[in-house]
Amino acid sequence: MSSGQSPLVAPLEGVALDEFAHRPSARRRTARGLRVERRVGLAMVAPAVLLLLLFIVVPAALAFGLAFTNARLISPYPATFAGIDNFARLFTDASFWRALLNIAYFAIVVVPLQGGLALVLALLINSKVRGTTFFRTVYFLPVVTSMVVVSLLWLFMYRQDGLINIVIERVTFGLVQGPDWLADPATSMPAIILMSVWQGVGFHMIIWLSGLQTISADLYEAADLDGTSRWQRFWYITWPGLRNTRNLILVTITIQALALFTQISVMTQGGPLDSTTTVVYQAVESGYSQQETGYASAISLVFFVLVLIVSGIQRYLTREKD
Asked: What is the pLDDT of residues 286-299, one digit of tens each?
């Protein structure tokens, strides 16, 4: 060691040389650890991927193939290629067009009604008042209840002598007699809409609430200092801050509306006079009740394309504009 060199330099140089000598083995250990982590990650993902393949990818591929055959659910004869016969029959089926009209009507009413009501509820329970936890639980309770149970409950409420008509009669002192809601083509779909909104509004309320809580409180404090009104705060702060949230809610409510099935199956079976039949219900009825698997697959394929088109249009309309 030279006279001008610090006595700590030599030990430090020795440590550095020692670390450098062992660096390849450390790299090998790191690479081995990464491989182990990758295998563990693949093992954890594998069950979900397997379920997706079994219940989504494989059925979708089978439906695509069966749509071009005359396959039946139970038949002693093998399925044969039928070309586009199922699609030609489908597009000339009056029940199919009525089903499309019904789900369009359902979606046009439910999407703004359920989304708007959920936003109002989220704004109310987001305010710092007593009892918000209680109201969150009450509003969300129908969501965790099975749709079958909810449908059966409302089925009894909609009867001619059900709770809703009793309330109408008591409120009007017997001057108004409520209809048989689900047996009248004029009231069957509005009745389904009312029940569906009541059941699903709590779920989207929670989504709106999560979006509201991501907006910085500093923006509202600055708005208060500027003397803005509540409407101005909502229009210039809250609504722009909920952009991603409302896009998500728009897509989810629309897809749920287009896939309307459980309420129809339990409450009306598509009647009366096809006033509540839907595309999904028609596909299930064709595939299981009528055992026309090929025709049901064609309906499912058309419905899949329809959902893709609607989702693509919504994505285009809600995109970020430069």
From this structure: 988 888 999 999 99
